[in-house]
């Protein structure tokens, strides 16, 4: 990672001594999420507004403005606009937007080399008798922009102990950041391995796959919703803003990830996997419950969990639960549904109705965002978006607008719109979950086996027999297939 924060846009930086931990079967779940450096001045307007304090040099660059708003420019001119001088520092929103989108046009280390060269040329940093007074004015601005340019920062720091310490602190912060990310990835591998090991029971004994169901561990919907929010916020915290842009880049043909995400955006894929797991977990617990009356209780329990997720602002878990309950093996259980009080579920489905481009959900999301911005406690700041739709919005924005205009300029206005979405995401993911962790619930949610689609259908038919010839044929086929594998 060469392009690091202002460059803290890439990933969160942990507090000193703070390590992120996840659980496997034999370890307690003790996640301590790193804190995101606050991105002040969240991007709100439709385009980047030119810094009124900047000097006249913009007029000599090939940057195009519309009503004093930067809308396009050549890559070279945008890089020039990024580089500070003794009396100029680029607007923070420009820095965020340009660094976020630049990787589509230039590799980060190449960009860093260009910036280093421009700084050296403009300020004559390579000369033995460089102006020390000028360096003192320039150094704080360069250090604010650059974090991992050893040669340049060494020259800047040559005359002042304060700047040498700043360079050392940035290097240590980068190392801590990489360490935490590495630990997170290792922990995910352990969790997935533990879940895969327990899944072997499902392949041979689907009815006995769950030794304990969620309600036997905790029958309080609010507590379960809190633990789901822990998982959501913890996984959100490790998704770097650059991953949304990396997902636009053509995937490496050697990458076997079937979800379409490259290795550089694998945290996005891992988060989508969590959504799918939760949906299948809900369906599994319902379909594996033998008695109709108890199945109805399980359905009502998950409806209550979903409602508590909505109240918290955890829309991703809410949608995953609704998706699980709408899966065909669950929705076909008509006798069970007849015993369920569905009024609350109908309200939740209405809130997440996909019609009119998810109008109801988007309205609720805006309300939660406004509540978060005015909140004083982390409890009221929580906003976990329906993540698949969030990614879809960014993808459509990318596909609907060109990266370059006909004159070869970079379409900066497009990337400003992308940066607005990502900036909002940065605000959401920095919230530290205020709820107390429950190790048993978290272990169950993360590692308990979930049935495949075929196994769900088989369990569903065992609970309520096939109703027509098509279902009878499928039931026979699934039973035969299961016996063959056994």
TrEMBL record:
Q: Which CDD domains match?
A: RasGEF (cd00155)
According to its UniProt entry, the protein's GO biological process terms are: Ras protein signal transduction
Which Gene Ontology molecular-function terms are recorded?
Answer: guanyl-nucleotide exchange factor activity
Return the SUPFAM superfamilies for the record.
Ras GEF
Q: Which InterPro entries match?
A: Ras-like_GEF, Ras-like_Gua-exchang_fac_N, Ras_G-nucl-exch_fac_CS, Ras_GEF_dom_sf, RASGEF_cat_dom, RASGEF_cat_dom_sf
Descriptive protein name: RasGEF domain family member 1B
Annotated ranges, domain Ras-GEF: 220-466
SMART domains the record matches: RasGEF
UniProt entry tagged with the keyword Glycoprotein: no
Q: Which domain of life is it from?
A: Eukaryota
Q: Which Pfam family, just one, is annotated for this protein?
A: RasGEF
Which ranges carry the N-terminal Ras-GEF domain? Answer: 66-196
From the UniProt annotation, give the residues forming the signal peptide.
none
What is the scientific name of the source organism? Cynoglossus semilaevis
Q: Name one GO cellular component term.
A: plasma membrane
| Keyword presence, Lyase | no
Task: Write out the transmembrane intervals.
Answer: none
Keywords on this record?
Guanine-nucleotide releasing factor
């Amino acid at each position: 990672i060469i392009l690091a924060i202002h460059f803290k846009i890439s990933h969160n930086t942990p507090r000193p001594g703070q390590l992120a931990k996840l659980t496997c079967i034999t370890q307690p779940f003790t996640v301590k999420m790193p804190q995101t450096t606050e991105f002040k001045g969240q991007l709100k307007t439709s385009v980047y507004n030119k810094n009124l304090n900047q000097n006249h040099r913009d007029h000599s660059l090939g940057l195009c403005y519309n009503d004093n708003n930067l809308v396009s420019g050549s890559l070279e001119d945008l890089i020039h606009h990024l580089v500070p001088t003794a009396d100029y520092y680029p607007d923070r929103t420009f820095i965020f937007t340009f660094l976020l989108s630049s990787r589509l046009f230039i590799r980060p280390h190449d960009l860093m080399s260009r910036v280093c060269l421009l700084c050296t040329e403009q300020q004559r940093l390579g000369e033995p008798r460089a102006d020390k007074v000028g360096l003192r004015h320039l150094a704080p601005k360069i250090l604010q922009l650059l974090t991992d340019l050893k040669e340049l920062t060494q020259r800047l720091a040559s005359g002042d102990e304060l700047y040498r310490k700043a360079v050392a602190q940035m290097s240590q912060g980068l190392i801590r950041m990489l360490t935490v990310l590495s630990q997170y990835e290792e922990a995910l591998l352990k969790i997935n391995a533990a879940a895969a090991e327990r899944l072997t029971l499902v392949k041979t004994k689907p009815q006995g796959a769950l030794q304990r169901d969620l309600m036997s561990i905790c029958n309080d919907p609010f507590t379960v919703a809190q633990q789901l929010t822990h998982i959501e916020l913890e996984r959100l915290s490790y998704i770097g803003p650059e991953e949304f842009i990396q997902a636009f880049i053509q995937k490496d043909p050697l990458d076997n990830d079937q979800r379409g995400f490259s290795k550089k955006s694998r945290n996005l894929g891992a988060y989508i996997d969590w959504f799918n797991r939760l949906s299948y977990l809900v369906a599994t617990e319902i379909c594996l419950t033998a008695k109709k009356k108890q199945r109805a209780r399980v359905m009502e329990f998950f409806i209550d969990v979903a409602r508590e997720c909505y109240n918290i602002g955890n829309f991703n878990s809410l949608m995953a639960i609704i998706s699980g309950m709408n899966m065909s093996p669950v929705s076909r259980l008509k006798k069970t549904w007849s015993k369920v009080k569905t009024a609350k579920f109908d309200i939740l489905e209405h809130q997440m109705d996909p019609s009119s481009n998810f109008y109801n959900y988007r309205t609720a999301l805006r309300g939660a965002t406004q509540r978060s911005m005015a909140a004083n406690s982390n409890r009221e700041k929580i906003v976990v978006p329906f993540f698949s739709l969030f990614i879809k919005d960014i993808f459509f924005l990318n596909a609907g607008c060109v990266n370059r205009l006909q004159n070869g300029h970079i379409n900066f206005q497009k990337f400003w719109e992308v940066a607005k979405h990502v900036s909002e995401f940065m605000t959401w993911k920095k919230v530290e979950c205020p709820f107390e962790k429950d190790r048993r619930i978290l272990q169950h949610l993360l590692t308990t086996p979930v049935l495949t689609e075929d196994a769900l259908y088989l369990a569903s038919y065992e609970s309520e027999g096939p109703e027509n010839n098509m279902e009878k044929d499928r039931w026979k086929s699934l039973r035969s297939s299961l016996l063959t594998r056994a």
